[in-house]
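Lay summary. Proteins are chains of building blocks that fold into shapes, and those shapes determine what they do. In this project we predict the shape from the chain. Here is one chain we studied, written as its sequence of building blocks.
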Amino acid sequence: MQRILVLNPKGGSGKTTIATNLASYFAISGDRPLLQDNDPQASSSRWLKKRKPDQPFIQGAAAFERNSRMTRAWQMRIPPDAGHVIVDTPAAVPAQEMPDMTKNADAIIVPVLPSDIDIHACSKCIADLLLIAKVRRDEYRIGVVANRVKRNTLIYQSLMRFLETLRIPVIATLRDSQNYVRAAELGLGVHEMKRYVVEQDLEDWQPLLAWLKAKEGAAQPVEDINPLPVPA
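And here is the predicted shape, written in a compact code that computers can read:
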């Protein structure tokens, strides 16, 4: 089982977009992933409720809820057939909570938007992961995703220069695309949408998926990982 934590204390960085699209991808891969929603805003849980019964199954866990009718351990149990657990974290996570949050994570994905405010927030997040959560660079558990970017802009170039200074791998660059908005409205991931509509977005995801695949012990290079079949 691979546990994937999507983390950035800055709100609006795209954590839920990445978490739900990962869950969708693994579901259509034949896995039965668990999507754990730790955010009281419940964006991942609302997305999950929009999915139809005939869509590939994704187990949901609203970790932010407290249910008096069951123990916490039972509420947070991981199904034995779940190959991946994707954790959507809330905004404003205190730095002192990061050690417990990250200790069992196989991969920590930090999304960042191309803006001065988000760049500053990402810098602090990475520093907290390294210094407070004690996640070592040589563990290669942290990967940054440049999210909602427009490549031919000065702020994008500034973002990429900043990311180079972190010495943390940039595992994907996701373009600013309305396909993510439409997917969220329909309870879909981009890998479930018509290929001709999302072809560029599928290409953007390949380095991220390859990074996760490599962390599972596969030696498959990025160029050998092809998008899954999607409706024509």
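What the prediction tells us: Residues 195-215 form the longest helix (21 residues).
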